[in-house]
Write a structure and sequence with these properties.
single chain; about 140 residues; alpha+beta; 4-stranded mixed beta sheet; 4 helices; 4 strands
Length: about 140
């Protein structure tokens, strides 16, 4: 546990001996933290689901907007506000995390994110039944 915390601190804040590649990882880590905070703020403020999407464009793959809209529309059809918070990466991959209030689930690849979405909706519904325990009340 202690080594994982140290690794997170080094990724988030850096070390003077980091190379360019290590600096890029640190920058991506910082962007992921900022996106997670933005998703949490959105979820609390709008009583919805914040979606953190880290993506790299693969040749022939759908655009990040199309991928994000799959999840946003799935939430909206259930009457749940949702918004994506995007973090570009230099790999031809995508990973998703879902934020409901102070809870964050993920990261998931696309297929796992789709299969986990029902549990994210259940988490949201439980949060709603509790009367939005954080932030602004509806």
């Amino acid at each position: 546990m202690r080594s994982a915390l140290l690794a997170l601190v080094l990724v988030a804040f850096g070390h003077p001996g980091f190379s360019k590649a290590e600096s890029a990882v640190r920058d991506e880590g910082r962007l992921l933290i900022e996106a997670s905070q933005g998703a949490r703020d959105y979820s609390v403020r709008r009583q919805g689901i914040g979606i953190v999407l880290s993506y790299g464009q693969a040749p022939g793959a759908p655009s990040v907007e199309e991928v994000c809209n799959v999840f946003r529309e799935a939430a909206l059809t259930r009457g749940i506000p949702a918004e994506c918070f995007l973090v570009p990466n230099d790999r031809a991959t995508a990973s998703f995390s879902f934020v409901v209030g102070d809870s964050e689930k993920g990261p998931f690849n696309y297929e796992n994110a789709r299969s986990e979405f029902t549990s994210i909706v259940a988490l949201y519904q439980g949060w709603k039944r509790l009367g939005y325990p954080y932030g602004n009340q509806p």
